[in-house]
Design brief:
mainly alpha
């Protein structure tokens, strides 16, 4: 019941499809699609937003400070993964400018579904979302994370 249509689409179709394709097609195009899917959308938008929401909830309630610290450390490690993805995408696009359109198409294709996943996560709570979490704020945070990644890629392209 936790696997909404949007979640299934990203995690059961798009992500495994993009990564599995690399087994038979290691082309730069396939790499761009895989890295955009995993590093930019799954880690850079969804995971970052999940960590943000969980830390906000736990810090606001003063609960589980050890878990909050663990999430901060995991998030720091995730930042390294995302930085690797950005660096790889920058290199691939600088070697073949036509890959920019592939990258933008992939990111723009998956962003609405990723934002739907965030909204879907709060739907079961109705109007009574615990810990003062505001779904619109989480969607805005996710969009901001997406824009940070996009800006980093655009700076390298210039």
């Amino acid at each position: 019941r936790y696997y909404t249509d949007s979640y299934r689409h990203i995690f059961f179709e798009e992500l495994p499809g993009a990564l599995d394709k690399l087994l038979t097609d290691p082309s730069p195009r396939a790499q761009v699609i895989a890295v955009a899917t995993y590093h930019m959308i799954v880690e850079g938008v969804l995971a970052e937003t999940g960590y943000y929401a969980a830390q906000r909830a736990l810090q606001a309630s003063g609960r589980l400070p050890g878990l909050v610290r663990a999430m901060q450390l995991i998030q720091r490690d995730e930042a390294r993964h995302i930085a690797f993805g950005i660096a790889l995408l920058q290199r691939l696009v600088s070697e073949d400018g036509a890959l920019w359109d592939v990258l933008m198409a992939r990111m723009n294709e998956l962003l609405p579904t990723a934002l739907d996943i965030i909204g879907d996560a709060f739907a079961p709570y109705g109007a009574t979302i615990p810990f003062g979490i505001v779904p619109a704020e989480m969607v805005e945070y996710a969009a901001t994370q997406f824009n940070h990644r996009l800006n980093a890629l655009e700076r390298a392209r210039a």
